[in-house]
């Protein structure tokens, strides 16, 4: 009955334009969803001749394994940025949930180290945590980590949505108090001796590849590379779910609508407060999943995880991908490519033997560049509308 | 564009160097956690200069106190195909993980000064805290006994570190062993510091007020000497040897401040971790493993250390890293 | 008596559109001139030219017989012209004395001579019978007292001409009386007054002469004795309607949709009752601040109300906009940019925002993209939105009229029973206005009820079946289409019997 119903406009081919200038094509490229992926490929192609290690299988495995935890955390941040918020507390949630998970499942704890911690005797004994050796104990610990994160997210979200406090302030307070709380819990000590089934989540292989021996080091090496790991499966799973949630569901549309114009969303009947709270819960839970991956590969619960420049990495990766700090513009695939580019950048700077200070300076410059790119994109979009 | 060419140029240098190494010259990855205190700065310098002077290629990685970053950096080193790794770890737990990671990738690894929780894997160089502390305490115990005119009980005060740290425990044990030799003569006063100058200040003030007569004092780390001074000086108890009211003071670490104070006569002795010995042995062990094709060398090397005292200052001064730094003008920088 | 200010052929064009054209007007020394006109008649442009804010395109001004062309507000103040605005221009964080002396403090030995400042301020305040401490912060004063401080500032600057622009909007009846006494006292000192107000009774009471502006021209002037309120209103409107509005296609039905009974919110609306029927377009007219937009927000659940009842189809409504949307309400606010649209988002996303829930599949609310794009495309066709690919083109790129169609369209997609339209044609050009009026007629003909709020009386008389008039938070009267009379409606809205 409606002609458009049979052929939705999105499915129709774009109008044929006979000749397009170089500038227009460059504009297309910059506006493309895949721009940062192309940028990453170009970056690798440009540096590969000078850094032979860059494309070595061992290095590719490293790049991937560094990507997964960061990706999960950055996905959570993407949701918050999409509603024009910011979640500075993610790093501290990583620390807190790392400690919470580890104290529940550690198989043994040293009283000389941990006897002064407030959790000693209460949760932790010489025989380890309450779930040590329990069937499905790791699963329970993971649930507990997610639950703790969800509570933090609930608190952040409620404060932002109901009390209308600026998210920067709320989550900055969260960052300080939660990380202090995590450090207090163990008195700054790490909780090691985690069960194998947990450690596997961070570094266990599912598919590994054997490549012939290599001759560059003086001692020949085993050349077994893990390509499909549990961490990869978890991170990609989270990414796909997040993509569907943000792009294909009512909730996702609401998230973007709030980011674009909160007043309009409110008047149009979007349950603004509930969506904001849910977004902060998602962000914190993503941080908890990141905590699983980080703690598992370090084989310890650490109250100092997620400190330092971690937040720079998370927000930087999301922004490089193209997610706007002003809200309303976000895609999970952008964040995926942003994380890829960011990890590649760190990796190559390391391979160039630059110091960590130089690495951070370059990272900062790249994030600034990404912000400028956002401005350029916006301007291009506006020009194209005319 | 300009930046990119600079990177490329740097990369050529790095890549060329690592490929061009001869059979004897090894590429060593040196991953340290941070360069925050004098001790680590000196240790870092000792290792890098020794390696480069021997013609080896050093790849440095600074983790900025982030254990996760250190793990990633060590993995990058492995991927780069280094011959061996030396790390100053962030802490004992991450050290254990990183050692296993490296050995599983067939790369020999040595851990410098901060021991992993699991001592059974990797080359581990540690200082023997108890022995060093005992040597330093012995010296001040002798001085205190000499000064004591009557037969009264003497007060021996120790500032202990964070007892969660095995180093702090070892140092206290060494102090106790030295006192035990004259058990009948000494009262022991323990002052907690938790490795924190503020805590040390408060507790020490309380202790000195309660016990105005202190006959000897031992601090578990030299970094607390300025704190001790700020407590003793207003009470007329900060004196050089020979002056009326001098208290025999001993410490441990061997930093530049301690060296200066020994020279000035305020401090009688300090236990020294022989940084140069530790660097030397870590390097020898890792290079030997590379030579032998041993991918998982496991060995614990103990640094017995020594005590630098007013008596042996002349001969052994330059064995103490703090004095070397002092001679370089470290405190004036 | 001489003229203190003379305007000769004064003209101001905004990009070729005249806001004030060829205006010649004399302000007599020591007299009070009442200046009236509808919104957009050119009063503010005229004041801005006198005040040095904008420069005239043509014509000239004479101040005490000398050519006067102020380049800034400071020039006007230096000449001796002061403005007392409806939005006060005081620093609420500074003291009364500091506000008076903000342009320059007297100094003694390089320091501010506070003793002189306070003494002089006290003296000026005494002349205005305002008994407040000069050191008191202006933020602690009542609106009436602040107004007097503004006048004190004018006196401090030795102003000879004081221009009052809607000075009584935020004053109580008592404060208004006091202001009028002060104005009388100022005139007794020989100062000249220009008084601008919508409250025609006040204008008559205070003024010696009346001048009426319409469409940027001086259409009528004369001494107050020859200027009854009826003449004022006739001169202000004076235009034919017709041809601008589409005919109504269906008559209202008897069944009530919205029933409002005694809704009260102190200081906002007072005992408002009205009934709106199926197929009816009810116009709600009132001046700025009469409570019309506030009433709309209360009806939609955005703002609270203390007393009274609101029923939709005979049933009480849940609190908050979400429940009311579900019950069948739609609200097009007066602020399209901030409250109606997501400017950066596509037309399709804007259209689908309200009715998104209908396209979700359980359990996670996965959207059916085919069904959604079919519906938005259908809505676009029906609204005749002039745009390219609605899934791509952002609403920001549309003209004001097409933007407004999108706002109405997004509500239409949820098939509501009641539309509340607040200033639906603001910022919309004449052609698109017609389309929007036609759209309003279609909404009503399809059985919906429309509550249309506007400050343009013409468009209400052109489209509504019935008009209610609000004044100071109350509904003061209503007229059926057959009895529409601009004069009656305006006289209710201006309520010249007040004061």
From TrEMBL, chain A:
**Which CDD domains does this chain map to?**
TM_PBP1_transp_AraH_like
- The UniProt transmembrane annotation reads 35-55, 67-86, 93-114, 134-155, 167-185, 224-246, 275-296, 308-326, 333-351, 357-376
InterPro entries found in the cross-reference section? ABC_transp_permease
Q: What keywords is this UniProt entry annotated with?
A: Cell inner membrane, Cell membrane, Membrane, Transmembrane, Transmembrane helix, Transport
What topology does it adopt in the membrane? Multi-pass membrane protein
One CC-aspect GO term: plasma membrane
Q: Where is the protein found, in the record's own terms?
A: Cell membrane
Against Pfam families, the record matches this protein to: BPD_transp_2
On whether Cytoplasm is a keyword of this UniProt record, the answer is no
The molecular function terms of the Gene Ontology recorded here are: transmembrane transporter activity
Protein name, as recorded: Ribose transport system permease protein
Name the species this protein comes from: Paracoccus tibetensis
From TrEMBL, chain B:
Question: Would you tell me the Gene Ontology cellular component terms?
Answer: cell envelope
Q: Which residues belong to the signal peptide in this entry? A: 1-25
Q: Tell me, what's a Pfam family for it?
A: Peripla_BP_4
Q: What keywords tag this UniProt record?
A: Signal
UniProt-recorded name of the protein = Monosaccharide ABC transporter substrate-binding protein, CUT2 family (TC 3.A.1.2.-)
Periplasmic binding protein domain residues are 29-291
Subcellular localization is given as: Cell envelope
Record SUPFAM superfamilies: Periplasmic binding protein-like I
Family, per entry: Belongs to the bacterial solute-binding protein 2 family.
Q: Name one GO molecular function term.
A: carbohydrate binding
This protein's superkingdom? Bacteria
Q: Which InterPro entries match?
A: Peripla_BP_I, SBP_2_dom
**Does this entry carry the keyword Signal?**
yes
From TrEMBL, chain C:
Report if keyword ATP-binding is assigned.
Answer: yes
Specify the superkingdom.
Answer: Bacteria
Q: Which PROSITE patterns match?
A: ABC_TRANSPORTER_1 (PS00211), ABC_TRANSPORTER_2 (PS50893)
Any one GO molecular function term: ATP binding
Q: What SMART domains does the entry give?
A: AAA
Keyword tags = ATP-binding, Cell membrane, Membrane, Nucleotide-binding, Repeat, Sugar transport, Translocase, Transport
Quick check: keyword Metal-binding in the entry? no
State the signal peptide span: none
- Which InterPro entries did the record assign? AAA+_ATPase (IPR003593), ABC_carbohydrate_import_ATPase (IPR050107), ABC_transporter-like_ATP-bd (IPR003439), ABC_transporter-like_CS (IPR017871), P-loop_NTPase (IPR027417)
| Domain ABC transporter: start-end pairs | 5-240, 252-497
Database matches in Pfam families: ABC_tran (PF00005)
Recorded protein name is: Monosaccharide ABC transporter ATP-binding protein, CUT2 family (TC 3.A.1.2.-)
């Amino acid at each position: 009955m409606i002609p458009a119903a049979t052929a939705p406009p999105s499915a129709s081919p774009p109008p044929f334009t006979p000749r397009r200038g170089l500038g227009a094509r460059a504009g297309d490229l910059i506006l493309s969803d895949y721009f940062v992926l192309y940028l990453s490929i170009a970056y690798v192609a440009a540096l590969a001749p000078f850094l032979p290690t860059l494309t070595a299988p061992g290095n590719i495995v490293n790049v991937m394994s560094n990507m997964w935890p960061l990706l999960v955390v950055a996905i959570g941040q993407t949701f918050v940025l999409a509603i024009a918020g910011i979640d500075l507390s993610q790093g501290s949630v990583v620390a807190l949930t790392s400690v919470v998970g580890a104290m529940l499942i550690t198989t043994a704890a040293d009283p000389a180290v941990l006897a002064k911690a407030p959790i000693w005797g209460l949760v932790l004994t010489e025989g380890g945590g309450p779930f040590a050796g329990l069937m499905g104990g790791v699963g329970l610990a993971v649930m507990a980590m997610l639950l703790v994160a969800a509570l933090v997210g609930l608190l952040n979200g409620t404060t932002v949505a109901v009390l209308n406090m600026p998210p920067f302030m709320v989550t900055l307070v969260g960052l300080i108090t939660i990380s202090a709380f995590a450090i207090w819990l163990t008195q700054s000590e790490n909780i090691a001796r985690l069960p194998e089934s947990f450690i596997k989540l961070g570094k266990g292989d599912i598919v590994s590849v054997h490549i012939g021996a290599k001759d560059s080091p003086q001692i020949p090496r085993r050349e077994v590379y893990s390509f499909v790991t549990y961490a990869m499966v978890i991170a990609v799973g989270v990414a796909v779910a997040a993509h569907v949630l943000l792009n294909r569901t009512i909730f996702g549309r609401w998230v973007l609508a709030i980011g674009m114009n909160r007043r309009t969303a409110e008047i149009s009947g979007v349950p603004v407060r509930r969506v904001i709270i849910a977004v902060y819960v998602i962000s914190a839970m993503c941080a908890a999943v990141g905590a699983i991956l980080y703690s598992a590969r370090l084989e310890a619960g650490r109250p100092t995880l997620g400190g330092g420049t971690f937040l720079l990495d998370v927000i930087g990766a999301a922004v490089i991908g193209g997610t706007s700090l002003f809200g309303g513009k976000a895609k999970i695939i952008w964040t995926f490519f942003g994380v890829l580019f960011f990890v590649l950048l760190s990796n190559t700077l390391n391979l160039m033997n630059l110091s960590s200070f130089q690495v951070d300076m370059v990272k900062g410059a790249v994030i600034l560049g990404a912000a400028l790119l956002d401005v350029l994109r916006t301007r291009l979009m506006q020009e194209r509308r005319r | 564009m300009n930046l990119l060419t600079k990177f490329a140029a740097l990369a050529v240098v790095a890549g060329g160097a690592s490929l061009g190494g001869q059979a004897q010259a090894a590429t060593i990855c040196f991953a340290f956690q941070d360069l925050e205190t004098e001790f680590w700065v000196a240790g870092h310098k000792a290792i890098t200069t020794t390696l480069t002077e021997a013609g080896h290629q050093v790849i440095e990685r600074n983790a900025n106190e982030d254990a996760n970053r250190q793990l990633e950096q060590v993995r990058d080193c492995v991927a780069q195909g280094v011959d061996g790794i030396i790390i100053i770890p962030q802490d004992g737990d991450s050290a254990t993980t990183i050692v296993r990671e490296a050995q599983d990738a067939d790369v020999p690894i040595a851990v410098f000064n901060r021991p992993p929780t699991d001592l059974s894997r990797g080359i581990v160089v540690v200082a023997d805290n108890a022995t060093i502390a005992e040597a330093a305490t012995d010296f001040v115990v002798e001085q205190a006994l000499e000064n004591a005119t009557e037969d009264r009980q003497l007060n021996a005060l120790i500032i202990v570190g964070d007892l969660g740290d095995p180093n702090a425990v070892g140092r206290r044990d060494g102090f106790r062993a030295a006192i035990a030799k004259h058990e009948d003569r000494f009262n022991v006063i323990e002052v907690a510091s938790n490795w924190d100058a503020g805590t040390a200040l408060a507790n020490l003030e309380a202790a000195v007020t309660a016990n105005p007569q202190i006959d000897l004092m031992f601090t578990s780390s030299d970094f607390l000497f300025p704190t001790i001074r700020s407590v003793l000086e207003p009470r007329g108890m900060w004196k050089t040897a020979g002056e009326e009211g001098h208290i025999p003071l001993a410490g441990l670490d061997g930093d530049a401040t301690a060296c200066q104070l020994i020279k000035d006569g305020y401090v009688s002795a300090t236990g020294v971790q022989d940084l140069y010995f530790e660097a030397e042995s870590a390097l020898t062990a890792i290079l030997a493993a590379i030579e032998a094709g041993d991918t998982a060398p496991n060995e614990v090397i103990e640094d017995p250390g020594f005590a630098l005292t007013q008596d042996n200052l002349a001969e052994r001064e330059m064995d103490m890293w703090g004095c070397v730094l002092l001679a370089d003008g470290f405190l004036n920088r | 008596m001489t003229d203190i200010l003379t305007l000769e052929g004064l003209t101001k064009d905004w990009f070729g559109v005249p806001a004030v054209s060829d205006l010649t007007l004399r302000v007599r020394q020591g007299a009070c001139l009442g200046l009236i006109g509808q919104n957009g008649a050119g009063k503010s442009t005229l004041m801005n030219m006198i005040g040095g804010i904008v420069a005239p395109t043509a014509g000239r001004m004479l101040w005490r017989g000398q050519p006067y062309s102020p380049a800034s507000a400071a020039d006007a103040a230096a000449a001796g012209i002061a403005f007392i605005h409806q939005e006060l221009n005081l620093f609420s964080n500074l003291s009364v004395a500091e506000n008076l002396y903000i342009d320059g403090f007297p100094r003694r030995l390089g320091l501010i001579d506070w003793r002189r400042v306070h003494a002089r301020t006290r003296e000026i305040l005494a002349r205005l019978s305002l008994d407040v401490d000069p050191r008191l912060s202006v933020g602690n004063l009542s609106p009436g007292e602040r107004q007097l401080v503004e006048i004190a500032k004018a006196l401090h600057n030795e102003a000879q001409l004081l221009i009052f622009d809607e000075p009584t909007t935020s004053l109580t009846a008592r404060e208004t009386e006091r202001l009028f006494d002060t104005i009388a006292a100022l005139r007794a000192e020989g100062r000249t007054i220009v008084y601008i107000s919508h409250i025609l009774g006040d204008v008559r009471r205070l003024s010696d002469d009346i001048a009426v502006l319409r469409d940027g021209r001086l259409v009528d002037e004369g001494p107050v004795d020859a200027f009854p309120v009826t003449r004022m209103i006739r001169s202000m409107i004076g235009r034919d309607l017709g041809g601008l509005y589409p005919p109504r296609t269906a008559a209202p039905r008897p069944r009530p949709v919205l029933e409002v009974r005694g809704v009260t919110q102190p200081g906002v609306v007072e005992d408002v009752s009205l009934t709106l029927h199926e197929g009816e377009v009810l116009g709600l007219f009132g001046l700025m601040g009469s409570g019309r937009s506030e009433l709309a927000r209360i009806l939609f659940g955005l703002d609270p109300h203390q007393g009274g009842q609101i029923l939709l189809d005979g049933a009480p409504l849940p609190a908050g906009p979400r429940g009311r949307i579900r019950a069948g309400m739609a609200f097009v606010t007066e602020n399209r940019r901030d409250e109606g649209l997501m400017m950066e988002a596509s037309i399709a996303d804007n259209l689908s925002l309200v009715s998104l829930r209908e396209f979700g599949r359980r359990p996670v609310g996965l959207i059916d993209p085919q069904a959604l794009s079919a519906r938005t495309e259908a809505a676009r066709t029906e609204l005749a939105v002039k745009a390219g690919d609605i899934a791509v083109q952002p609403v920001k790129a549309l003209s004001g009229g097409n933007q407004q169609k999108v706002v109405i369209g997004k509500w239409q997609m949820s098939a509501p029973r009641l539309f509340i339209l607040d200033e639906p044609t603001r910022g919309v050009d004449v052609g698109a206005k017609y389309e929007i009026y036609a759209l309003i007629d279609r909404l009503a003909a399809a059985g919906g009820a429309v509550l249309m709020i506007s400050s343009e009386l013409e468009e209400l008389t052109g489209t509504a079946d019935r008009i209610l008039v609000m004044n100071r938070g109350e509904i003061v009267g209503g007229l059926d289409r057959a009895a529409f009379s601009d004069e009656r409606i305006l006289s209710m809205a201006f309520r010249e019997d007040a004061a």
